[in-house]
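tmp note - tRNA 5-methylaminomethyl-2-thiouridine biosynthesis bifunctional protein MnmC
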Amino acid sequence: MTEPLVPAVLAFRDNGTPYSPRYEDIYHSAVGALEQAEYVFLKGNDLPGRWQKRRLFTVLETGFGIGINFLATWAAWRADPDRCGRLHFVSTEKHPFSAADLIAASAPAVADTSIAPLARQLADAWPMLVPGVHRLEFEGGRVTLTLVFGDAAQTLHSLWLRADAFYLDGFSPARNPELWTPAIFKSLARLAGDHATFATYTSAGDVKRGLQQAGFEYRKVDGFGWKRAMLVGRFAPRYRVRRHEPPLPLAVDERHAIVIGTGLAGCAAIERLTARGWRVTSLERHPAVARDASGNPAGVFHPMMSRDDSVGSRITRAGFLYALRHWSSLERRGHRAMRGPEGLLQIAADEDEAFAMTQAFAAFAYPQDYVTPVSSDDAQRIANMRVARGGWFFPHGGWISPASLCAAQCDASQALLERRFNVEAARVERMGNEWIVFGADGAAIASAPVVIFANAHEAARVAGLRHAPTRSVRGQLTLLPESAAKALRVPVMGEGYAVPLPNGVTLTGASYDIDDPDTALRADAHIENIERIARLLPDMDQTMDTARLASLEGRIGFRCVTSDRLPMIGAFADESAAIRDTDRLRGAWPLDLPRTPGLYGAFAFGSRGLIWASLGAELIASQIEGEPCPVERELVEALDPARFLLRALRQGTAR
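out:
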């Protein structure tokens, strides 16, 4: 079970230095925060020199604190004309500050400096204080800060990246020994790239011995301020004993990808790749984007809540928070999707669930800007209609038009996107270093080193996968006239949902009909939708006679789902090679599987495409580019398209 996040307490020493009462230590030297960051961590890692003219450079820091090391690194990157193309800064923090306290803690250090505007940008982008990985982007995505909220002893092993430099910060080994253990240094060694360096302000004996045992060479140099000595060094193990090497970018002759499908998954993948400078050819069987399930008038978005913070809850939390940041970024760049005002109300199934979830939210110490338990009276006030019972409110949940989001992401891709409609992919074949996509007539359609399958039900078939089982679920939406729920103020959901649209119509649904291919609107599905929402909103108009039911408008979409209800996101396995090596792989883990170079999938999103599409696209782009993963490794494994193959290998049933 996820541990609740305990925020930092803001305090200052008499000299104005930020101080932690919990660890009885200061956040930076009283001699100067920026000066310490530049001397210890930048100079100690030979930066900016080592990142110059590189496409990607990754820094991993233990202990984000008040963010001065990140701000100093960002400022150095901005000032360097030979800077790397993309700077990734990954930092762990067990006790993060609130945004307001972060501003107050860092203000004295950045006042009257060129870094002050950067500190404001950081505070404006500061995430909600919930556990997990939070990816923030600056400089149009060329500077990425990945914050890992949680205890480094548990979170470091879940990261997947190739670090070029380590900033070993955090409170002193005497005050915070848990951050300076052999296990921590071993976790860092697992992530160290070739020629990776480190720097730390301390020269404690236990730190020297722990680093050395993990494969790092060190040397003592003059310390900063009142410190007599500090340590710098590099990763130089005598033997290569790692089971898996840290990720590297996919080797390609040209940064060109084909994306099959232009629904939520495909358009998100297009935008995330073009944002990194990739040229993308999109193939769509329809004459325009978002014609299948992504063409629904609106969709709701919110995290999934559970009493034990399950894997599904953690994945939807990560997707929800990333989507909010990503959509805001699109809007700032002038690519606005149509979405409603913030706020979504979930009605509990019964009073027992309402009580249990309220207890769970308190145990996890979720902040109110993430989720808030509400009584029946509070829920009625929020909805502006009578409700069946209380539940919980998502202040940043709501509804959005999927088609408008797809359009916004394609528009943001601009000249790097080639759109091809009325083209249906039938199969792919490897030729040299490229993949050729063929149509049903056997003619070649397009070729590129990378193909991303975002075509839902057809993805596994076109890619030739045998161990990627999915099913089709028919979903019928019902559009109710204005009189049905004219007072409803926010989307309300539970067993069903009701979304008030700008034109006065209320969207309800959706039916859940497994393996039902019927494309005609059905009165029984309309009745089912209306009855479900009436159980949440008792005043919903139920006087629907047969004639009125027949006249109701609606829409049918077919969702693609897996048996575990999680999507397929990531690199495809080489199924044939894995099956040939069944005996060796019977006890394998996902990183042990052979992968098919250049093939990736983003499909089987079910009814959560709005939550998963943006994060899934960022994950795939990160895998292709060899960048740090935007979520924990165990969540990547839960989404892995090869997970069903892995189960078959373990059970001895792979064929």
